[in-house]
Amino acid sequence: MATPFSDPSLSPLRTIAVVGLGTMGTGIAEVLAKAGREVVGIDISEAQAAKCVAALESSTARGVERGRLTEQDRAEILDRVRTSTDLRAAADADLVIEVAPESYEIKQQIFRELDGIVRPETIMATGTNALSVTRLAADSARPERVLGLHFFNPAPAMRLVEVVSSVLTAPAAVTTVTNLALDLGKEPVAVGDRPGFVADGLLFGYLNQAAAMYEAKYASREDIDAAMRLGCGLPMGPLALLDLIGVDTARTVLEAMYAASRDRLHAPAPILKQLSEAGLTGRKAGRGFYTYEAPGSGTVVRDALTPLEGGDLVPGREVRSVGVAGSGTMASGIAEVFAKAGYEVVLAARSEEKAQAAKARIGESLARSVDKGRMTAEAAAETLDRITATGTYDDFAVVDLAVEAVAEDLEVKRQLFAALDKVCKPGAVLATTTSSLPVVACARATSRPQDVIGMHFFNPAPAMKLVEVVRTVLTADDVHATVREVCARIRKHAVDCGDRAGFIVNALLFPYLNNAIKMVQEHYASLDDIDAAMKLGGGYPMGPFELLDVVGLDVSLAIEKVLHREFRDPGLAPAPLLEHLVAAGCLGRKTGRGFREYAKR
After folding, report:
1. How many whole angstroms separate alpha carbon 335 and alpha carbon 358?
2. Does 220 qualify as catalytic in the annotation?
3. Which fold has domain 199-285?
4. Domain map (residue ranges) of the chain
5. How far, in Å, are 56, 92, 104, 339, 406 from residue 357 at the CA level?
């Protein structure tokens, strides 16, 4: 069944051989056959070839059941696919796509043999995501006909295809393969030859840092994964994704990236080597970072590392009323969250006017919830009545929990905590919402550092489910238990982490954003191509440059500087392009221009 993009009979690529019939090769064969191409599937294993055919039969049968295909469509698709264990079956192919294991020796052997089999005009594509396309092309008799064609798994569902040119690739070959990708209903992105290309080049650095974070016992595997899903809207957490990709595959990709970049952020975390050499390669082995029901299963089962239900054995302190310090969007959002959960809230700002403006903002937010049918007008009115707006922190004398959400400036926060120390009653918990500053520095500004903890909400607080709970070395156990209990009552997912720059989310997110900026700075890929690659290939809700412009380039630069200062890793140094844009006043959407220009409101 051809796609509506074009008539396959008019394409110069009518017969396509797929070499390597694992999960990816089988998926590519399905995509090609559904688009009307004649497909020759080749694998050295007869069993694997048979498995490919069975998978196609099963997939197309599901298509018929769901009404996406007719029985005739299914029969025609299956008729277009034939399999072989002999590379000579590719003799009549217009295009050969190689998706063999990630090994230069294996791939070079395939290309050398194909040189003596295929026609001179046949295009040869490698599906590698880690190895040098240039190196593979250089060993070929016709390097100008060799390029990279990197599909994403599962190929039938994922829209991104990276079309990789080497310095030897003929432009006509690139054009022909790009047109094929469009005809398949995919989104082709043109990239140069470097390990990981765009999507994996950004993705695997992030996955590596997550593995290193877990290895350092900074946070549990469950909390790291939950933080990135809930804090960034990602479809999977990084450690679960490593298990899906294969820990050994990730290690191979990272080793290739590190060999090319010598960036320590790409040096594979030792735990990847340890798991790989132990055979704990992820889902396919039944165990990796997590333990699975069976090899190949995606169902996680309990193991020795699974946290116990109700793990807090220390009882928390009673919290009936909450003080929120600040008048900005974060402060008003946090006050709304607590009031909705039934707490009496004191919302304090530097002036009565600012506090009342923040309360009015909450009223508008509640009115929108009523308009959308999310709450009744009566419930909204009761919620707003629970909030007392005040221009003095003296009114925090009665609260059991004080949460500050003032400017991200350490001296401002230290002064506020010193004031809260004098005002708040003994036993009150004092929390900071800082996203980048040391919580212990706020704690040391008080006479009761054991009562101070971090509660990092995400913006907008009413919508975002995540709270990073940040213990310092001085935080009391019952203070930690109190905040965990409060998070449960306000229906937020709490993750535990220590007091270091970036906590979980920002420590993993911002190096990824910084690396995306470096790609543009080095003219490797365009803003649009990088954003498209990460949304289509990585399942990200926003591309890195869309996100940077929303967060604010000045805010992003400040966080990058904090991370670089704390970890002293050269790879974390802010990209000069980011610094130049901030110096020019191009701060993102809020100024009308950042990486892109925006219409004035």
Report:
1. 9
2. no
3. N-(1-d-carboxylethyl)-l-norvaline Dehydrogenase; domain 2 (1.10.1040)
4. 15-193, 199-285, 321-502, 505-591
5. 61, 73, 64, 17, 15
The pLDDT averaged over each successive group of 10 residues in the chain (601 residues) is 47 94 95 97 96 96 95 96 97 97 92 96 94 92 96 92 95 96 95 90 96 97 98 96 94 90 92 97 97 95 87 85 96 98 97 96 96 95 97 97 95 97 97 95 98 97 97 97 97 97 96 97 94 93 97 95 94 96 97 92 56
CATH topology of domain 321-502: Rossmann fold (3.40.50)
Quick check: do 15-193 and 321-502 share a fold? yes
Q: Is domain 15-193 annotated with CATH 3.40.50.720?
A: yes
Query: Pick the catalytic residue: 30, 98, 436, 456?
Result: 456
Decide if 468 is catalytic. Answer: yes
Q: Does domain 505-591 have CATH number 1.10.1040.10?
A: yes
* pTM score of the predicted model: 0.91
Instruction: Respond yes or no: is residue 435 known to be catalytic.
Output: yes
Looking at 261, 332, 506, 515, which residue is catalytic?
Answer: 506
CA distances from 436 to 16, 382, 400, 501, 545 (A): 52, 35, 25, 5, 21
Other CB atoms within 10 A of residue 57 CB: 14
Whole-angstrom distance, CA of residue 15 vs CA of residue 95: 7
Given 98, 222, 468, 560, the catalytic residue: 468
